[in-house]
Structure prediction request, 258 residues.
Amino acid sequence: MESPEDFKKLFSEEKVKKIFDKVFDNQSILTLHSLAKKGFFETVEFVVSTGKEAHVFRAVDVSENFRAVKIYKIETSTFRNLAKYLEGDRRFKDVKHSKKDIVFAWAKKEFRNLSLCREAKASAPMPTAVKNNVLVMEFIGENGIACRTLKEHGEHDTKTLEDYYRQTVEFIARILYLKELVHADLSEYNILVKGKKLVFIDIGQGVLTTHPSAEEFFKRDVKNITEYFTRQGLEKSFEDAIKDIKEAGKMLKKRQNN
Ligand SMILES: Nc1ncnc2c1ncn2[C@@H]1O[C@H](COP(=O)(O)OP(=O)(O)OP(=O)(O)O)[C@@H](O)[C@H]1O
Ligand SMILES: [Mg+2]
Prediction:
């Protein structure tokens, strides 16, 4: 593979080829090329999701491991919102405010936040690489098919719902009490269901608790989650969840100190 043109040939699906020029600006092509050259993946196979801010593809590496490649759009229309989450995060205080810089910082932020999740043993995709606006991570799928979101799943029985609620509380508590991190966009849209296990994704907007709006974002996360479970028939108040998160946090701290 010598040039970005060669790289383009590696895309195996017609649909991907068709949208190639729409989706990939030259910068993204060069970035993908550089990541592929370093061995983070070999072929980008097909589109998993196309959204407002990012496109997610399934890729495969030489050892036939699947990877999720998330490409943040540089010309994203909502980039001004991104700035709100970056300002006030001491990790990104030197970021310049051009669209490109903000999007690059955003991708890096998701990579770091995913790394923090892994360190806290909170269920999230393992990040493998980030460069400019491209993030490579573990592909959350079954038999090569991306797992559905909690939103896309139908009804769940009470026992399953109780377990999902417990896993959600555990996730929030692990990142909060072990890493001082708040997801800040937690909802049934950003949770994948792998078998009976929940995997929490899309954490680019996650902030540290030192961020001036961290508490507001935390409360919004808890509200989204309790509303979801209540709608599903597992009645949980905001106060219930706060209590459960605190309790889970105490247990984690206790285990950490022993
Ligand atoms: N690691 C992954 N493994 C498998 N599928 C993934 C992975 N990450 C993301 N996806 C798929 O891509 C979709 C969008 O991902 P994500 O939520 O991270 O992006 P987003 O920022 O919400 O994008 P947008 O808001 O622009 O749609 C997810 O709902 C899921 O279907
Ligand atoms: Mg999302």
